[in-house]
Amino acid sequence: MKNPNGYGSVSKLSGNRRKPFWVRKTIGWNEKGHPIYETIGYCKTREEGNMLLADYNRNPWDVDRVKITLQELFDLWIEKKSGKLGKSNLSSLKSAYKHINKLSGMKYKDIRSYHMQDCIDGCGCGYSTQGAIKNLWGHLDRFALELDVITRMYSELLTSDPIPATSRDRFSDEEIQKLWKMYDEVQEGKTFPEELHAEYMDIVLIFLYSGFRIAELFKIKAEDVDLEQMTFKGGIKTKAGKDRIVPIHPLIKPIVKKYMSEGGKYFLTVNGRHLNQSTYREQYWKPVMEYLKMKHTPHECRHTFESVLDSKGANRKCIDLMMGHVSKDVGNRVYNHKTLKELKEAIELLDRFELVTG
Question: Domains in the chain, ordered, with CATH?
Answer without folding.
Answer: 1-60 (no CATH), 63-164 (1.10.150.130), 173-347 (1.10.443.10)
